[in-house]
Amino acid sequence: MFTNTKFATWSLKPEILSGLEKINWDSATEIQRDTIPIALKGLDVIGQARTGSGKTGAFGIPILNAIEAKGYLQALILCPTRELAKQVSEELESISGDMNLSIISVYGGTDLEKQARQLSAGVDIIVGTPGRVMDMTKRGYIDMNSPHYFVLDEADRMLDMGFFPDIMWVLEKMSNRKQTLLFSATFPQEIIDAANEFMSNAEFVQTNEDELDLPDIGMFRVKVSRNNKLHATTRILMNNEHGQSIIFTNTKRMVDLLTSKLKKSKFDAHALHGDMNQNQREKLINSFKDGKQDIIVATDVAARGLDVDGISLVINYDVPNDHESFVHRIGRTGRIGREGSAWTLCSSQDSGEMDKIEAAFGIVQEKMDIPQLPSGSEERVAWQEDFTDSSTPFGYVRIELDGLHGSNFKLFKWFRTNLNCKEEELGDIIKLKDSTIIEVHKSKASLAMKVLEKQKYNGKSLSYSLSTF
Q1: Which domain holds residue 119?
Q2: I want to staple 202 with a disulfide (CB 3.0 to 4.6 A). Which of 44, 76, 138, 237 is the partner?
Q3: What is the pTM of this model?
Q4: What backbone torsions phi and psi does residue 206 show, to the nearest 5 degrees?
Q5: Are residues 233 and 293 in the same domain?
Q6: How many domains does the chain have?
Q7: How far apart are CA 467 and CA 416, in angstroms?
């Protein structure tokens, strides 16, 4: 991800070079190396860059180099979520060093009057979400005739979230716009069409053209039933001795449920999703960034813009519903070349979707068993006997009895008597060359195996295994 190009290569302001030095930025990433020299010339840029590639620096450094602390709006940056807007603002503050710029985040869910007072006091750069920026413009607190520089960050996410009408409204108001920088991980036709409307002769920058810009981390795939995902999660967490963790689920309800279960299992877990009010969310995110919290359980949208250096572990409790989300998730760790690992928990129902994601991006995940319990540790969530993943669509588990031949009726009667079960809880009996398979309903499968271990059939002990026939 990093290149040999130093930031000192370019004619940047001393304050910016000093700011970069303070945050230990020495060498540019690929997207920064390719974007910054073009943007410094004042040209429009369309950049294809995924999360964790250093794109904030790619558009932020040229803009900071072009402006001064004047107290009126010079640059507008739009982001899809308030978390990402806040993150971008903080990063620009760090890069700008001692430039004394007024950089304000403008997004919903916060005190409107307080935001209005901040804007009225003077601002050089606004980083905001489309809806609130549009609202504050209509209220007269933002003058769209003022800024010369415009950035659209994560354009594909904006499109997915339905923000493009608001974005086009903002662009139409920016009568003195001189430079536009657009960044997106993917380029649906709608984005290309929109870009052609408000950009002219833009330079296209694409890093890793032939391969996905995945973080250099360990990626592992664990086959586990739905009922044992909590057990697997606790084992993985207990083996993560250093760093912070983020666990992804697909729904807000599952975030709350999993967080509750982890807390009961003595893990310091905290929920992050869209139903939380803004003050709660910011308090949690800031606490997590400061290293005061170890584990966050989140939905995809809530975690956008959550860039924390200390995240060393990502767990996909649920396989995401869309392919891009998987890349964004694992991009939470291994930020800018740091170490990390991502574990994906796959039940039989998840496997098909996970196979598609791997094929789409050429991802290779190492197939792993649930990690062993660390030495000297006590189990926090017990493994459950669960035959859901190994049962037929009708709920039967197939038990293969080695070397058994004889009457199907007699075998059926023996099982029904010893299991004390209903007739419908036993399914078909299938004769193979060297064995016999009997179908037992999953609710009785564990009992059936205990019976086979203790009871004899025709005076002989039976050897058995679960069949995939």
Answers
A1: 2-206
A2: 44
A3: 0.58
A4: -135, 120
A5: yes
A6: 3
A7: 20
